[in-house]
Known about the structure:
410 residues, alpha/beta, Rossmann fold, three-stranded antiparallel β-sheet, binds guanosine-5'-diphosphate, binds magnesium ion
Amino acid sequence: MIIKKFTGKTKEEAVEAARKDMGSGVVVMNVKDVKRKGIAALFLPKQVEVTAALEEHEEPRPIRREQTRGGAADSGEKDSRAGGGRAAQGSAWGTQQENSQNIEKKLDSLQTLLLSRFQQEEAARNTQTAAEPQEEAEEEKQEISEQERFVKLLYNTMLENEVDEKYANQIIDELEKGKNGNIPFDYILSNVYQKLILKFGKAEGITEAENGPRLVLFMGPTGVGKTTTIAKIASHFVMDEKKRLALLTADTYRIAAAEQLRTYANILEVPFRVVYTKEEAAAAVADFNDYDYIFVDTAGHSHQNEEQLNNMRELMDILKQAGEYQTFLVLSATTKYRDLLRIASNYEEVSEYQMIFTKLDETSTLGNLLNLKLYTDAEIAYVTCGQNVPEDIEQFNPQKTVKQLLSMRH
Ligand SMILES: Nc1nc2c(ncn2[C@@H]2O[C@H](COP(=O)(O)OP(=O)(O)O)[C@@H](O)[C@H]2O)c(=O)[nH]1
Ligand SMILES: [Mg+2]
């Protein structure tokens, strides 16, 4: 992908400059006003900066969004995707289903890391016992096998990553059951690794509807990154997958919230609507009936606020009646565990959901991802790791997360 910046007096002028330079296939990624400093701000005309991108294809792909609707090329694309599952997968996602070789490599490096830590602890332990000689009988009683100490190391690592003690115990207990004799460390490690991956499960993610548009509702507390995440995902579907997508917002509590999504809709050149009532929501869904996706942004609500909760339920009812829907609960990885539990339970009243975790870049411990998965039994579909739209998002990759849960960060 080639990315360049262009400036002009207006957005149109800057986009025109981009088209001239890079060709008509150029996609506008971002538009911002250029801020001039000091005196210049008063005298110089306003300037707009557009970031434009052009995908480099080995074969030219002339099919634009408008032309893919119902054309022969469209069905061809759909057929070729059918084998690969219906979940969205594209270059911009950085998800890359890992092949087993890759996983083995990761496991190898994880093992090296853990073993070196284990050896350090063993060395420290030996010097300690040498320094404080104990009664021989007592020492024998306290002696636990190397295997047990290695399991303990894994357990402590999980706790350091803020995996709830209850779940860490559960994982170790399951391990102990199958244990007999001298099990090699790599066997113990790959066993825990696999258990954790299985516990995370595999999310469906946003899928195409069988009939009509896929309605996708995003809910979650204020400030977790719902609107930003919607923009990232929408950008993927519009730019990479060339889908028709409409954005709605039911976040009518703050004007700025609606404007934020409108800006992204403008950048992506997709329709946008603010829906104030359930009737308006129903009408908007009907109007975009021939679209591939309709994403609905919502306001965060506190659980004490019955009115907000009712609005959310009503909106959900509209979507349920209108067609094939999916619901995502957006949570921040930086929120305290106790609060996450409360939020997750509150939203259960509204609908079943898959989860999206945001702000992974702002925390070094990912235990809450596992805790919430085990608490809610809802799968994690996406994670975001920065403020940049559209790139700072990935489909959730359990292997990567589990590796982190079993590693030390310091
Ligand atoms: N560091 C970081 N900030 C994020 C991420 N996602 C969103 N944000 C920021 O969080 C703030 C709130 O985001 P917004 O989308 O308005 O949240 P909403 O109230 O849930 O819609 C904004 O400043 C975003 O840039 C993320 O993955 N990492
Ligand atoms: Mg918002």
